[in-house]
Amino acid sequence: MKKLLNEAVSRRTILKAGGAAIAGSLFAPNIIRPANASEQILLLTWETYHDDDWIQEWGRANDTEVRAVRIGSEDELYSQPFSGAIQPDVLYVETGSLSRFKGAGLIKKIDVSKLPNASNISSHLPWQKFTTVDGELVGVPYNWGTQPLMYNADVVPTAETDTWATLWNEKYKGKVNMFDDCTISFPMIALYVGAKDPFNLTEEEFGKCTDALRALHGQIRVIARGFDDASTIYAADEAVIGYCQNVAVVTSLQAKGKNFKYSLPKEGTPTWIDCASISPQGDRPIVYKFLNDNLSTQWQSRFITKSTNNGVLSAESARAAGLSEDALKITNIVDSATPGFWDKLVVFQKPEDLERRLQIWNDFKSGIL
């Protein structure tokens, strides 16, 4: 098999059409940060999470230099601090990886009493049981979302989108897209093969996943390296169906006039809760203030509106903060409160053997399975 191609494109242009930002400054714009700020905060964050103008605005108001290093996968997030070039104060980690990051000493216990705005997190978001590791709370949600099946509705019939099996349909050979992240891609493969628990596979289920990935390799021409990359691939008609890294990719394509939709397959849809986690060096009052302000209804409503992400607010709180009905319609915020919605979702948890999964995934990308 030929090696899957990775196309490097700009990863800073994603999702700017998700809606006009809510008017008004969040933090006293008349406060000018001195040339040498008294504090510094370094974020390891995701595309669309912390626009430079937002964090600079907050920095001016708080005499702090805030810098964001944006990553495109959970695997990259884990490796960056070990590079020696980056010493983050805050890392945005999905729930299934929290134990891995804690075990490596990258994150520490969070004192939620220092985050009074955590009370703004929707009661419909089941977060605390997923963010507690060895009895310690090590993450507080900033955003959540589903990893659904996405497709070009002009090409793929809706009737075919209720199952992950469609990704293996021969008629879409060369037109399927996946993104380069073993941690959050492998559970979808496990759900497809019928694993009882996609995070605790048996030997037989590992074999089925390996076979499924071997068959999927021939369906894919390009693997995406992040949100921007995926959006570019689909917009260029190089893919018509695939595993969606973030629903905001779909809404960005819709904003470009593309007829893309997404579905929650019957086998179950992997679901992430990205959490702000504090590194040992980030355990400082100014870092807690930043995280607390990020959970304010004003910050969250602007984030949701502009990025089309779900954030952490309930529909009622989002409306009260100024989020429009049009903005709500393209998120899962309202859906999350409906009976049975969470039954369709599978929230990421710690896998049984990440190294084994990574080896299989790398072999899949290289075509040597």
Name its key features:
alpha/beta; D-Maltodextrin-Binding Protein, domain 2; 2 domains; six-stranded mixed beta sheet; globular; disordered N terminus
Describe the protein in words.
The chain is of the alpha/beta class and 369 residues long. The chain has two domains: 21-144 and 272-339, Periplasmic binding protein-like II (D-Maltodextrin-Binding Protein, domain 2, 3-Layer(aba) Sandwich); 146-270 and 348-366, 3-Layer(aba) Sandwich (D-Maltodextrin-Binding Protein, domain 2). It is built from twelve helices and 14 strands. It has helices at residues 52-61, 74-79, 98-103, 182-192, 203-217, 227-235, 247-255, 285-294, 297-307, 315-320, 325-329, 354-366, and strands at residues 5-6, 39-46, 64-71, 90-94, 132-133, 136-137, 140-146, 149-152, 176-179, 220-224, 241-243, 260-263, 269-278, 345-347. The strands form three sheets. The chain has a six-stranded mixed sheet with strand order 1-10-9-11-8-12, with helices on one face. Strands 2, 3, 4, 7, 13 and 14 form a six-stranded mixed sheet that branches. A two-stranded antiparallel sheet has the order 5-6. Strand 2 (39-46), helix 1 (52-61) and strand 3 form a beta-alpha-beta unit. Helix 4 (182-192) crosses helix 5 and helix 6 packs across helix 7 (247-255). The longest helix has 15 residues, at 203-217. The relative contact order is 0.21. Mean pLDDT is 89; it is low at 1-35.
